[in-house]
């Protein structure tokens, strides 16, 4: 049953708060609040986000709200549906395996371009993220740290359009990992892979690190495939047993 307007207002206020940001920060504040609420599951898949409701909630015009929603759509966290406007995108879509395959191609190229240009500070940043991942127990934070680690290795990629596409894929993965990393049991495996990636980055071993990254990401393909297969099994309608006729 759809929520009444007052129920929706109360729900959005409880999830997003009603802080009224300064005009010059409105777009960034709204984007961050909505993004965090999507990533932590407070705004579930299918939730409609109407511009006027958000504008009223934050005490701003519709312009910064519109821009914030566009940014979130570009990050694949929202999608626009006919007659509904912006809605929270599904946690994972049926073409996720294909999308992961594309990620492998894009991130391999980003890594290949970036590694020769990384300096000591870049590598120290990457190391810091792994060290945080080693001790972090909150799976939602592990998803964020995983994204930041990978982005730190791609940081010097000169192709900015490529970087935007890579970041979009990592945003999708972060959301998936927040809800599934524990059940997949990939936490320790990922850190072993991350340390190996860092070692190869320090050695500037470009082709070896690209190969290692592809191996690392293929673990994700297997996890996504397993998730989708499990989901399909759960959604199968129960088999009706035919009544035996009495002779």
TrEMBL record:
Pfam families linked to this entry: FCD (PF07729), GntR (PF00392)
SUPFAM superfamilies referenced in this protein's UniProt entry, alphabetically: GntR ligand-binding domain-like, Winged helix' DNA-binding domain
Recorded GO MF terms: DNA binding; DNA-binding transcription factor activity
Lineage: superkingdom: Bacteria
Keywords: DNA-binding, Transcription, Transcription regulation
Coiled-coil region: none
UniProt keyword annotation of DNA-binding present: yes
The HTH gntR-type domain, residue ranges: 24-91
Keyword Transcription regulation set for record: yes
Entry protein name: GntR family transcriptional regulator
């Amino acid at each position: 049953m759809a929520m009444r307007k007052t129920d929706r207002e109360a729900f959005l206020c409880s999830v997003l708060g009603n802080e009224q940001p300064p005009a010059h920060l409105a777009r960034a504040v709204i984007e961050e609040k909505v993004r965090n609420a999507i990533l932590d599951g407070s705004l579930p898949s299918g939730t409609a986000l109407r511009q006027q409701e958000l504008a009223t909630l934050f005490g701003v015009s519709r312009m910064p709200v519109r821009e914030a929603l566009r940014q979130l759509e570009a990050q694949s966290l929202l999608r626009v549906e006919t007659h509904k406007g912006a809605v929270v995108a599904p946690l994972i879509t049926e073409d996720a395996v294909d999308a992961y395959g594309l990620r492998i191609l894009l991130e391999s190229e980003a890594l290949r371009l970036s590694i020769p240009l990384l300096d000591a500070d870049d590598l120290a940043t990457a190391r810091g993220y792994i060290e945080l991942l080693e001790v972090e127990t909150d799976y939602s934070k592990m998803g964020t740290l995983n994204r930041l680690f990978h982005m730190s290795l791609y940081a010097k990629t000169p192709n900015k359009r490529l970087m935007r596409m890579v970041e979009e894929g990592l945003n999708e993965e972060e959301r998936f990992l927040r809800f599934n990393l524990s059940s997949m049991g990939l936490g320790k495996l990922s850190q072993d892979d991350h340390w190996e990636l860092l070692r190869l980055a320090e050695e500037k071993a470009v082709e070896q690190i690209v190969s290692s990254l592809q191996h690392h990401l293929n673990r994700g393909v297997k996890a996504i495939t397993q998730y989708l297969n499990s989901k399909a099994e759960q959604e199968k309608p129960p088999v009706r047993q035919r009544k035996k006729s009495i002779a």
